[in-house]
Amino acid sequence: MCPVNGKLQLHDGRTAYHFQPAKFWQNGPLYHNGLYHFFYQYNPHGPLWDTGKLSWGHSVSGDLVNWAFLGTAIDPTDPFDVNGCWSGSATVLPGGRPAFLYTGRDADVAQVQNVAFAKNPLDPLLREWEKPSCNPIIPFPADVINNNFRDPTTAWLGRDGLWRMVVAAEVAGAGSALVYRSADFLRWERNAAPMHSSAVVPVLECPDFFPVAEHGTDGLDTSANGGPGVKHVLKLSEFDTHQDFYMVGRYDDEEDTFSPEEPDRGDNCRRWRCLDYGQAYAGKSFFDARRNRRVQWLWVNEYDTKDDDIAKGWAGVQAFPRKVWLDGDGKQLLQWPVDEIETLRMKRVGMQGTEVKAGDLHEIVGVASSQADVEVVFEIPNLEEEAESFDPDWLDPHKLCKEKGAAFAHGGVGPFGLIVMASGDLREQTAVFFRVFKHYGKYKVFMCTDLTRSSTKEDVYKDAYGGFVDVDIEKDKSISLRTLIDHSMIESFGGGGRACITTRVYPEHAATSNSHLYVFNNGSGTVNVSKLEAWEMDTATVNSADALDAILVAESS
Questions:
Q1: Which segments constitute the Glycosyl hydrolase family 32 C-terminal domain (predicted)?
Q2: Domain count along the chain
Q3: Is the whole-model pTM more than 0.85?
Q4: How distant is the alpha carbon of residue 164 from its chain centre?
Q5: Contact present, 395 and 380 (Cβ < 8 Å)
Q6: Which of 297, 368, 429, 462 is the most exposed place for a label (fewest CB within 10 A)?
Q7: Cα separation of 468 and 479, whole Å?
Q8: Does 133 lie in the same domain as 220?
Q9: Burial class (CB in 10 A: 0-12, 13-18, 19+), 526
Q10: Are 292 and 437 in a shared domain?
Q11: For 239-259, what is each residue's pLDDT tens digit?
Q12: Maximum distance among all alpha carbons in the chain?
């Protein structure tokens, strides 16, 4: 590695302020006794999944930004998890004792559900965990097929005093969210009816189920039950597409049933709302009692080659933690990077009241654009006259992003937005942009991250990712965009967090030269940048053992 303009260039795509393990990823976040804990699937022996005989890695933080690595929390050492400690969750029991619910692959490679408890709940670092001999607490069910039975959620306590959790399963060919109940967290019984079931999507994983306040942005404890002012979110990860879908609805804790707020979307979760339209997957949330908020984690895989991963010695990144709350329409979630990210902001540059005419390209200079946080508001002065009519064939966001990409010039309102991680000759560039269409007397706002020109390397996956932003652009004639740029990671939030797209990029120029950042407009008319702020971001301390003393000192002061 070498410094460029005083900033360390990360040749292997390693990020500077996103959470990365020493080697692999994803699982159970937790706030306990003043510290944030993150537990994740981890291969101590190499960067790849290999045989799946994974442990749970463990890192701690005082601010969700700087992290210290504490080694492994649990390892595949028992008959009920000897072939791997797979995904699960963390729950804090009454009295303050944390517990894991997790999927183990047993000696027969069957997926079974297990529990582990913190040995000493008073230890702020929660270094030691014990697995009771009664594991597995849920053996492999007779009606589940294809060994698809995994990923228990954080448990919640019903008004009847019983614990509940959801486990993803393929039951008789239907992707299902099974509900289990327990009085003691050790003996669990399955509810007769699943919370969700559909044969359209047979393989589901990594479910999440949590309450949200109908009004305001505060989070709710996972055991906050249905009642006035409370709705619930059921999130499911779809194995084939590697996307997370969610539905807002009402939860009845007597019957353990979930009634969707948008029943017209049906039981095919692919028609539900999308948590992130890009490459982020397997989201897991937790209630942060310190800041009274719900925080969402998302895992982002590698999209270069396995040989690249072996050469780097690591694979996988987490999206930056996001605060999640319910929009005023009561149907969609808003997501936004947690406020602590602003502690990394350093040098700032801005732009205000700037016209961006058709075909214009304005470079944003003065910050290291490979490690930046950019917020911009675009105004559309001639929305009615310039918006193109929407073709029903474009309802597929992927198709629309490919056919009407950033290079599609003079197409109406847009494409306009940001070009990030660009080489000096623009042969490598990633565009994050909007297009606006007329549709039955209203307007549809489309957002896309186009990776097709992100790298000149041939063995990198370079697709285009997009989705529709559920905003009333006619009211304000403006749309906002926030993009976090961190070397190989690009996270974008459109319309105040109503649409999110997270992607990985692997530009070759980053190894030898600076990247560039631009505002662009390839639409037929002018758009105005009413406000743009770009910050160069500091480098966080991520998974260094040296960070532990600083974290503990900061928390004790």
A1: 340-536
A2: 2
A3: yes
A4: 24
A5: no
A6: 462
A7: 13
A8: yes
A9: middle
A10: no
A11: 999 999 999 999 999 999 999
A12: 70
